[in-house]
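Re-run with default settings, no changes from the original entry. Doing this only to confirm the output is reproducible before filing.
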Amino acid sequence: FWRMHRCARIIFSMNYHLNKWTPQQCVDFLVDRVGFERANAEAEVRRSFTGGYGPLYQIGYMLGGLQFRALHKELVQSGKLTNIQFHDRILKENNMPVEMVRALLTNQTLPENFTTKWKFAGAIK
């Protein structure tokens, strides 16, 4: 459910910010397509548009989450880090692009003119 919910946020947020949907159409989408109760859908739409979130916030949230899941798979499921080590290191490094965190966790040395290239790969399950 959480991924459907996150994807729905992207869909209604982008349609609203591109002036394709009204707030009421966003609410109707959440009710009709995602299964929200109307009061919850109204609160979700209200929070999304009055909470100071920019147009790309929902997309960035979802993509960042998918990148961290891929990084977890690469480092924890392969046995390079334990789950606790992974999460402790992520929290220690704080707020930076996932690829920069990946470089730190895998002990990579980055040149001064480094530009990011890493993306999650494979099918989204």
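The chain has two domains: 2-55, 63-125. The CA atoms of residues 94 and 101 lie 9 Å apart.
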